[in-house]
Amino acid sequence: MSHSIRVTTPQNVNIDFSLATVGERILAGFLDLIFIIILASLLTYIASQIENLIFGGTTGWLVFIMAAPLFFYTLLLEAFWDGQTLGKRIMRIKVIALDGARLTLGSCTQRWVMRIVDVWFSIAGAIPGLLASLFIIISNKGQRIGDTVANTTVITTKKRNSVRKTAFVRIKKSYEPQYPQAAQLRPQDIVTLKEVVRLTTTNRKEMNIDAAAHIQKVLNVTKEEPARDFLIRIVKDYNYYEQLRADGNLQKSA
Q1: Per mean pLDDT, which range of 161-170, 187-196, 238-247 is the poorest?
Q2: Which of 27-31, 183-187, 203-207, 218-222 has the highest mean pLDDT?
Q3: Which burial class, exposed, middle or buried, applies to 65 when counting CB atoms under 10 A from its CB (0-12, 13-18, 19+)?
Q4: How far apart are CA 14 and CA 7, in angstroms?
């Protein structure tokens, strides 16, 4: 199985994501099961107490009504909580659409329905989730059957390695990128550009000019500002798209 996947956003920006591992997905599912059991127990207790007060006994109807939404736990959270359940949030993984669009209730419903096959059905019926794990392992896109049907996959949002951290610069939430092509650069390239900008003095303008000319050629863009400002803009634009990649949030791309 490939460890990463490239997704093209609706704005034609290519962003590489790291796929969640089978282990991360299994552990997230196990955590979700624990949360469901805890919530079901709590709701059952509350409903029983209410029925005892009202009817002088337990009928089971209120218990069923209050606990029924837990049957749709995964569907509702993934659809309305940015592709995450409680377990996925803890494991820092999330569901994304492979076409770069926003996750829809329809695609989440397709994933949820196919859990009957992926998670609860297994070879010989003895190991729930075995079939899903096998498909995730052999798939180049880290997909179980439900992901294939819904055109989704699961990525990790964990922090990157030290090189990526070195390439990091802080940008405002309202920042608007100008060069989407900056997403194509490597962390090492951004570290180099940051160093060029840092070393620049009035006597080293040619260093900025040379670096800017190289970046223009690599990205096939035309700068609309002085060389040093262009390099700073490229570093910021790269970090903007890196943050999108880390968050798995394709909808903010310009």
Answers
A1: 161-170
A2: 27-31
A3: exposed
A4: 6
Torsion of CA 59, 38, 125, 121, to 10 degrees: 90
The stretch 22-28 carries a mean pLDDT of: 90
d(CA 238, CA 58): 60
Give the residue, 163 or 222, on which the prediction is more confident.
222
- Give the type of residue at 107: S
Spatial separation of the C-alpha atoms in residues 153 and 250, rounded to whole Å: 14
> How is the chain split into domains, by residue range?
4-156, 162-252
Residue 151 confidence class, pLDDT cut points 50, 70, 90? very high
Distance CA 15, CA 113 (A): 29
**88 touches 31 (CB < 8 A):** no
Residue tagged 């009957």 (tokens): 116
Expressed in angstroms, the distance from the first to the final Cα of the chain is 31
Tokens of 22: 């089978």
Instruction: Map tokens 């940008």 to a residue.
Output: 171
Q: Does residue 202 surpass a pLDDT of 60? A: no
What's the pTM value of the predicted model, to 2 decimals? 0.66
